[in-house]
Specification:
The chain is of the alpha+beta class and about 260 residues long. About 45% of the residues lie in helices and about 25% in strands. The protein is built from eight helices and eleven strands. The relative contact order is 0.20. The mean pLDDT is about 85.
Length: about 260
């Protein structure tokens, strides 16, 4: 009978997700899922840019996630798709709409700890409500990478989730040579801006831990605050961004992709 806000995933299987949703329906209590990485500062800026058509009409979303084996080894018993693909899929849903169809393309198997194997890279071609999308998950890469790219008519915007930055590449009214110079200067300014901001956020988190500038914590806090604000206002929950049925659908999608990859 108590309202509950859970982190992703809602549960480890479709059956468990449906059991939670049914329990919430019986009790009448609010059940929500916090989409912390949809509230990530770099990603929310990307969302604004796409929604405002700052680079023209969006035409496709592409997400790339590289995970070193050392990170995988720290989660030896976790479902790898739920651990590493679920949050990018939630971000794709936020940009491109509900995922209608998915087709997985499995790369060669790589060896993990405890005798397990996993296809790497694992590509997912996604047909979504508003835009086509693609997700590439690669395990065993040396450098961790998590980038969400919005491809638009007049340019490209890239949100770097791990670096908490966003870069844009678009056309201007200048001739090519001047445009290249303008782009380089804008890129240098963006680099400096993000570097200074990240340094200040790190200093803030050391001096005032409760006000941590960690972008992951910022995203979590935003979601938690919005959930409780909705409860306090007496609103009917869950609103779209907390919808457990959407979260359950992503868990089921990960299960289907995992089954297909194993068959391939």
């Amino acid at each position: 009978g108590k309202p509950v806000l859970l982190e992703q995933p809602l549960a480890a299987s479709s059956e468990a997700c449906n059991a939670l949703i049914a329990a919430a329906a019986r009790s009448g209590a609010a059940l929500g899922v916090n989409q912390g990485f949809v509230q990530h500062p770099a990603f929310t800026r990307l969302q604004e840019l796409v929604q405002n058509h700052e680079l023209g009409r969006p035409v496709m979303v592409f997400c790339l996630r590289n995970v070193p084996l050392t990170e995988v080894a720290r989660h030896p018993h976790d479902d790898l798709l739920l651990e590493y693909a679920l949050h990018p899929l939630a971000q794709i849903t936020a940009l491109a709409g509900t995922i209608d169809k998915v087709r997985a393309f499995a790369g060669p198997l790589i060896d993990l700890a405890h005798g397990e194997t996993f296809p790497s890279p694992l590509d997912m071609a996604l047909t979504c409500e508003a835009l086509p999308a693609r997700l590439r998950l690669s395990l065993g890469r040396r450098k961790p990478l998590w980038q969400v790219t919005a491809i638009c008519d007049d340019g490209v915007a890239v949100a770097d989730i791990l670096e908490n930055r966003i870069d844009t590449h678009g056309r201007t009214r200048w001739r090519d040579a001047l445009q290249d110079l303008s782009t380089d200067l804008a890129g240098a300014g963006s680099e400096l801006n993000h570097a200074v901001r990240n340094i200040l956020d790190a200093a803030t988190s050391l001096l005032w831990p409760k006000r941590s500038g960690n972008p992951v914590r910022i995203g979590m806090r935003r979601g938690i605050a919005q959930f409780h604000a909705a409860l306090d206002a007496g609103l009917v929950l869950p609103p779209a961004m907390f919808d457990p049925k959407v979260a359950a659908g992503l868990v089921a999608l990960c299960q289907r992709v995992g089954d297909q990859a194993r068959r391939d």
